[in-house]
Amino acid sequence: MTSDSFASTIEHELSHPKWHLRFSRALEARFERDTQPQRNRNMVVAGLIAALIYSLFLINDYSFRPEVFWLSVLIRGFVVLPFGLPILWAVYKGVSGSARETMMASTVVVGMVASCLISVSSKSPYSYLDIFSFGLILVVGNILYSLRFSYALGSSLLSVAIMVYFVIGYDPMPTEVKRLAIFSICAKAVFTLVANYRLEASERKAYLLLLRETHRTGHALRSNAELSKLSLTDPLTELANRRQFDALFNHYWQQAVEERATVGLMVIDIDCFKAYNDYYGHLQGDHCLKSVASTLATHASSACVVARFGGEEFVVLSKGQPHQAVLDQAEQLRHSVEALQLPHLGRVAPDYVTISVGGAVLQPTVGVNASQLFRAADQALYEAKRQGRNRVVMISSPDALSGDGLSISIQ
Ligand SMILES: Nc1nc2c(ncn2[C@@H]2O[C@H](COP(=O)(O)OP(=O)(O)OP(=O)(O)O)[C@@H](O)[C@H]2O)c(=O)[nH]1
């Protein structure tokens, strides 16, 4: 699903909530996935509370229908709990949404059957009064568990039908009381189902609102990231642009001051590029720039910053590398462009595209600043051009900066 269609699905679900509450298929699956861990935990806690209260009803059995106490122990302790606890364990471990709802709904129905069996087995005069508490079973399913509405509806209808069946056939119960009990359980079913429906509807709405916010925030962050990437990237070569290079250069320099490390800089220029443009045209010139840029990016060490400084000039920045390593790297870059053998018939010789590289390595010390490094590398490039191009010239030592001329190491 694309970002836009996802956003419109959320809007549609928010403005057209369905009576049966379910979302469209994909969103429903996501809703289940996102809410599952929390819902499983809530269900297990609710189930344990229900099991505890259900067991405590043994006290009532003992006090007002002692003749079925052991039957009650048997049903509650050896049927209902062994049925319910493994279900809670399975939900705790994680099962599909429909399995979870079905199993939890089944505990409601089994609880109702068991309670009815205990009640109608007793001949005690007030045993039937217990039947008025059966609405609690619906409260457990519809409110405490908060079963999904369709499951709450199904288990409630089944539970009410079971209860009505037992009540009708239970002779010790006066007819008027039976009528009252049936009316009472039906009313409790309706009330708890209405509450269940509202709970689920507001849970789903809250989920959609949260999803919409998360989606909008993510979208805004992505747009910002794209904008900032655009503002820092050269559109033609996709290398870092001058702005990014300037920022990184300062950053590297500051880090080098703190770490007492060296900073290496290469200034790279495509040879006779004006002639290339004149011969092949500006568009082909752009292709050439792209090829050289991607070759530099591919062959430069991953620890380096490769940027387009402007026009047909590139820079490669590194930190913590000794003079020799920067020199080797510069020679490798020069060689990799030469190896492309991009035809350049606009110049006399050689008839392929080459680059000249000027490099310098400095350790920031008192009185030495970043622009001195840049000037040194630029002067080395000038020297490389002067000596015939397609070569690397490195400033051999920082001392050269303070002298009249540059100490040059020519490859
Ligand atoms: N196609 C294209 N050409 C560019 C671009 N930016 C700068 N140039 C061209 O690059 C050429 C640079 O030429 P010069 O600075 O004279 O240097 P050169 O011809 O490379 O000669 P040397 O540097 O001395 O080898 C100019 O013709 C610019 O128009 C660009 O984005 N695309």
Domains, number: 2
Number of helices: 12
Q: Topology as H/E string?
A: HHHHHHHHEHHEEHEHEE
How many angstroms separate the termini?
Answer: 56 Å
Largest sheet: 6 strands, mixed
- The helix-and-strand class reads alpha+beta
Roughly what fraction of the amino acids lie in strands? 5-15%
Helical content, roughly? 55-70%
Spatial order of strands in the largest sheet: 2-3-1-4-5-6
Could you tell me the mean pLDDT?
92
Query: Which ligands accompany this protein?
Result: guanosine-5'-triphosphate
Counting DSSP E segments of at least 2 residues, the number of strands comes to 6
Radius of gyration: 40 Å
| Overall geometry | rod-shaped
Query: Runs with pLDDT <50, length 5+?
Result: 402-411
What does this structure look like?
- With 411 residues, the protein is of the alpha+beta class.
- The chain has two domains: 3-217, no CATH class; 242-410, Reverse transcriptase/Diguanylate cyclase domain (Alpha-Beta Plaits, 2-Layer Sandwich).
- Helix content is 66%, strand content 9%.
- It has helices at 3-15, 25-64, 69-93, 97-121, 135-144, 149-168, 175-232, 242-259, 273-280, 282-299, 323-340, 370-386; strands at residues 263-270, 305-310, 313-319, 355-362, 392-395, 408-410.
- Strands 2-3-1-4-5-6 form a six-stranded mixed β-sheet, sandwiched between helices.
- Strand 2 and strand 3 form a beta hairpin.
- Helix 2 runs antiparallel to helix 3 (69-93), helix 3 (69-93) runs antiparallel to helix 4 (97-121) and helix 4 packs antiparallel against helix 5 (135-144).
- The longest helix is centred in the middle third of the chain and has 58 residues, at 175-232.
- The radius of gyration is 40 Å and the shape is rod-shaped.
- The structure holds guanosine-5'-triphosphate.
